[in-house]
Design brief:
single chain, 90 residues, mainly alpha
């Protein structure tokens, strides 16, 4: 039952064997919890990016609809007529 040959004494009592297996499983769980999720940093970065996109969309909405950006845009694109010289009557 000791495939690695690390010369650990193997328990002969089934209860000791069960305790040893439980101890090993608890150690493995603790090691996994300390390591954390491998995608934790990626998930955090994606939430920050999503937050930045939403804030950018709200600022653009404010600029276009509340601060007059749309009126300014319409004013620039208005066709302007050039004044023509008035014809003089003699």
């Amino acid at each position: 039952m000791n495939p690695h040959g690390n010369r650990k004494p193997e328990p002969t009592d089934p209860e000791q064997l069960l305790r040893a297996v439980e101890l090993e499983l608890m150690q493995q769980r603790a090691a996994r919890q300390r390591a954390g999720s491998p995608y934790r940093a990626f998930r955090l970065a994606s939430f920050i990016f999503l937050f930045a996109v939403i804030i950018g969309a709200l600022l653009a909405f404010y600029y276009v609809f509340y601060s007059g950006g749309l009126d300014e845009f319409r004013g620039r694109n208005e066709p302007r007529t050039k004044p023509t010289p008035a014809s003089r009557q003699p």
